[in-house]
Amino acid sequence: MTDQSPPENSPAPKKAGWLDLFREGRAPYTVLLNLGIALHAIDIFIITTIMPTVVEDIGGISYYAWTSMLYMVGTIVGAAAGGHLRARLGTRRGYFWGGLILLVGTVACAIPPDMTTLLAARVIKGVGGGLVIAQSMALVSDLYTPSIRTRILATVSTTWSVAALFGPGIGGVFAELEWWRGAFWGQAPFVIAFLIMAWKLVPDQDSTPSHRRFPWRRLLMLAAGVLAAGLTNQYKMLLTSAGLILLAVFLVWLTFRRDGASDTKIFPSHALSLFTPVGLAYWSYFLISATHTTLLIFAPLFLQILHNVTPLLLGYLSLVFSIGWSIGSIVAASWTGKWERHGSAAGMLFASITTVAFTFSILSGTIFMVTVWSALIGLGIGATNVLMTNYGMGVAREGEEAITAGSMPTIRSLGVAFGAAAAGLVANSAGLDEGMSKETVYRVAAWVLGFTALIPAIAALICLRATSWGWKFRTGR
Q1: Which of 381, 413, 203 is nearest to 295 (CA)?
Q2: Residue pLDDT, tens place only, 334-345
Q3: Are residues 86 and 95 in contact, defined by beta-carbon separation less than 8 angstroms?
Q4: The domain boundary residue, chosen from 146, 181, 211
Q5: pLDDT at residue 207 in the model
Q6: Which range of residues forms the domain containing residue 72?
Q7: Where a domain ends, among 172, 193, 211?
Q8: Are residues 161 and 307 in the same domain?
Q9: What distances in angstroms separate CA 290 from CA 184, 284, 287, 454, one per listed residue?
Q10: Domain check: are 359 and 464 in the same one?
């Protein structure tokens, strides 16, 4: 790739403003991309709210957690297949078909007579959501220059926060009405609007030759790996959980290995290498997701037992974290020069330090300080996320720009799956399966949150290496 980055001592290039997202014909794309992200994001927050009503209506309490787990598996498979679908069908039709599968999954979630049918529908909806978010990220790379890209990425982060704000409320309304199916029927018109906009707005770029084979084996292997990671928290036996994590790691590693040798890749070259800029960027996404997943899964349990926090307040704390993430994204989106270059490492170092402070607040502090530190953790992660996403798009190999951007959501989802599995293993090792007494939970909290604080510290080192050693690969503005 040609080195077009500015010299070390040259003035930082001018950053585009927020209004530039709506100038020069970009306004419809900005709306469309955020709508696509919102359709995926809001479902995640709605399903957790309505699930008690769902199992009361159609049964299947033993599969309570599977609706979210299988949705995640479907999302990862869909996101991994997004680049292939786009290459096979073309930009417009690929995006449209992703939305169409999402619509089918949405309707299917609204009509199931039993839990088995609902679980199948969740997989379909997850695949559709993954296809949409993967191709949305590819379109960000296509339609927005580096000087404005951090702005659109920051708006995407804000969209997630808006979903976190309104998703539980929307689900709660339908749960109160005892019409959980309405939560899905209510999404359908917005998916239809997305389909119409996608067909009318997205450029109709050519597809590649039709002999391109669909990577079923790699996708199934990847799905099996993610499912193995997700199943770890279903078992209390430490050896069983550890064995499932090892199996998951092996299957995912084998997927990437076979993909690297394939002529029809679903991931960019050297995607997991610590010696390439893209590989370093991908590891940062993985560790970012692992960090916030561990916090959002276990912090509510610790607060509920150690501080007697109500479920309503727990939801509020999650929202505070999301708001902090959005603010960090918005602030970092305007950085240029050395601020942009070193901000990603600084953000994760800040997240590591504030996670340590968050840990002490949970163990022996006040709810007010827990809230403050939660927001500050989100602030650091949000800044790093937007900067490293822009960086990853900028260092993509020539000809792999769309694959690199489109597979970013897959890596993030893998971070979610393995972060939850690893944290669960640490929790069980610390004695969580012994009971829920305050003494036990106190010990588990110290171990789990201590483990969590290490993750962003490692990510900071990776970001530092990426943006110092790999900066020469950055494309110009």
Answers
A1: 381
A2: 888 788 888 999
A3: yes
A4: 211
A5: 59
A6: 21-211
A7: 211
A8: no
A9: 29, 10, 5, 11
A10: yes
